[in-house]
Amino acid sequence: MKIETNIFDFDEGILLENGIKLSSFKLMVETYGELNESKSNGVLLCHAFSGNHHAAGKNADGLVGWWDQLVGPDKAIDTNKFFVVCCNNLGGCSGSSGPTEINPLSDEIYGNNFPQVSVEDWVNSQKMLSDRLGISKWHFIVGGSLGGMQALQWAISYPDSVNRAGILAAAARSSTQNIAMNEVARESIRKDPNFCNGDYIKNNKRPKDGIKAARMLGHITYLSEKHMDLRFGRKYQEEGSKVSGNVDFEVENYLQYKGEKFSESFDANSYIIMTKAMDGYDIAADSKTLEENMANIKASLLIIGFNSDWLYPPARGKEIQIAAINQNIKSSYIVLDGEQGHDSFLFHSEKYSKAIKKFIES
Amino acid sequence: MAIEISKVIQDWVPRGSKIVDFGCGDGTLLKKLMDEKDVQGYGVEINDKKILSCIEKNVPVIKLDIDLGLHDFEFSNFDMSIMARSIQCLRNPNIALEKMLSLSKTCVVTLPNLGYWRCRINLAVGKMPVTPDLPSSWYETENIHLCTIRDFENLCEEQSITIKEKFFIGPKNKKGIMSSINPNFFATEGVYLLEKK
């Protein structure tokens, strides 16, 4: 599989939804496979809140991409057939313009000065990337969770630029419960003494403990009760492999380990920006209803929900499906069991991969 | 579905209409209607394997339990709803009929006939009918609300439903003379085009 990682600079800048203008910005982009001559085989992957541009294959650090189980040669999204593109979203912390990058206007790190971005802003910046790549119409735009919101927004904002959209474990808006969970996570970051009101980089500090606690909570919401039971049960962690002295149970050890690892790589301001963007997303936030806002969609939709997902349960996908039918949009809605809860969208399962493959190759 | 039945239904479907097929199976009928009658079609199905076949055919499909989900389509403005050999599997066929006619202008229903003479012979010797059209034993059948042609037409009458068209199929999916003369005795299946009075 041909993998390329590049930075794209956009010196023309972008006007954000909230009225703030970024005078210039950059996107970290990874591509897999090759664009055909007619530029009709493009597939855009939109990452979820903590994802990044590295979706498939192994990168230089030996890390496997977040959707490697579904993206690659002969996989659900076959890189022998499709030119697959994934970018780190604005406000992220993996190389695109965001809190950890230098503000070209001041030559200082953005830190807590990076503006709040929205799902619409991401879609607009991805559209600019499409234009740069010469792709006027994507064969397929897909994402899970927050990525699914982007795929849906693409179909709404740029109806002529999307052939098919995959909306996986997602919703047309964040629920009250989603917002509540995110706020607990953000609060644990803000209350970390090293957070320094978001100015930790300048102060040479890192609010690791806050990010860690936030991620531990997050992981609970990504998994299902059943999956946790099956995977960890009430088993005690073996003495030699405990990550900390406080740990008794395997599940504690797992959360500690995952939280710690995440806190080493993810930025606290990015965490806040990304979750705020997720919370803020609501297709029907203006005076129009979900249906009215979806009226212009020309793409065919594939909506997939998972029964074990209690963060974005299947009913949220069904809501989009029914609105699509009422607007005469070609749309399919599937519910799969997906044992891994909300995270199910990340993992291969026979029916899941088949559904996506058949949808994009039909 | 027998070729004759799908052909009959095809003739009844208005060109370019918006239709929903409850219990659409692998999407064969919808695909045909989409290709030949230019319909905007949606299938409703519960079986994952069949759903994947629909997606493969590029037929829009929704995974839903018809028993629970008919009310979801309240504002979908369908021209026609189809329920082929499924109504007898539902918990409340009468309520389902009512619902289908509230969410679409017309509706096509096909159903196996328990009044078919071979079923009657089975019952006459004291056994639940098992025929080529109703092959499952009583303990494993999905058909929990079987009825005769007469029963069904009586229900339509009671619910003020107009039978606009009907068509009867005999054994081996043939349109025999006998099944038109006395459908309640000779037809294995009835095909109806219904409308609210």
Describe the 3D structure.
The complex is a heterodimer of chains A (362) and B (197). Chain A is α/β, with parallel strands linked by helices and 362 residues long. Chain A has 2 domains: 251 residues, 3-Layer(aba) Sandwich (Rossmann fold), CATH 3.40.50; 99 residues, Orthogonal Bundle (Rna Polymerase Sigma Factor, Chain: A), CATH 1.10.1740.110. In chain A, 34% of the residues lie in helices and 17% in strands. In chain A, helix 3 runs antiparallel to helix 4, helix 3 runs antiparallel to helix 7 and helix 4 packs across helix 6. The model of chain A has no long low-confidence stretch (mean pLDDT 96). In chain B, 36% of the residues lie in helices and 24% in strands. In chain B, strands 3-2-1-4-5-7-6 form a 7-stranded mixed beta sheet, sandwiched between helices. Chain B has 197 residues and is of the alpha/beta class. Chain B has 9 helices and 7 strands, in the order H-E-H-E-H-E-H-E-H-E-H-H-E-H-H-E. Chain B is globular and about 45 Å long. Chain B has a single domain, classed as Rossmann fold (3-Layer(aba) Sandwich), CATH 3.40.50. Classes of the chains: A alpha/beta (362), B alpha/beta (197). The interface between A and B is medium-sized, with 21 and 21 residues.
Could you list some keywords that capture this structure?
A: 362 residues; Rossmann fold; 2 domains; eight-stranded mixed β-sheet; two-stranded antiparallel ribbon; B: 197 residues; 9 helices; 7 strands; 24% strand
